[in-house]
Model the fold of this input.
Amino acid sequence: MLVIGIAMLQGSRHEHMESIRKASEDLDAEIEIRELRKSTDVDGIHAVILPGGESTAMKIAARSEDLYEELWKYIASKQIPVLGTCAGAILLSQKNLISTKIRRNAFGRQINSFESELSIDFEDQDRFHGVFIRAPRFDGKAVNPIAWLDDEVVGVSENNIIALTFHPELTDNLLFHQWLISSAKHNLDSK
Ligand code: GLN
Done:
């Protein structure tokens, strides 16, 4: 059974849970969704979602239970597929799990939340509806970009990790959630 972890400390975790459940139905894949709250929840997961929310609040919530320390070690050593959205992408960059740099709240006040069509280059798809909420911006050179808002990179795929500054869990498009399940399944089958 594929075990998909979702970091449950803060943010849009219930929306991600719904998307991953629907994606598993579409793919006819049996999954167990594991809610990650403390370090002992991490062992045995085959993929993980780091939701958006407020990265500072997440770090404070995680401190008492050391969830993140365990999670970063596990991701680095097991190379499991990771989907990090918005604040999740911020954490991945701050922990150097992706090498693309990121700036928090970088769209400024007036337009800190907006929606826009994106172009993507991922799994044979070229369009995606982007929902941005107090979004960060990638900074400097993006490694392996997969999504663009006009000319600006808003998604990267580095090794086993996808980091997006927008929120796919707030759309009906399950592309990234399906990717997470498929690649976890692929890893498990090839063991
Ligand atoms: N502004 C948030 C932060 O800096 C990220 C926003 C989001 O995840 N929707 O942590």
In short: The chain has a mean pLDDT of 94.
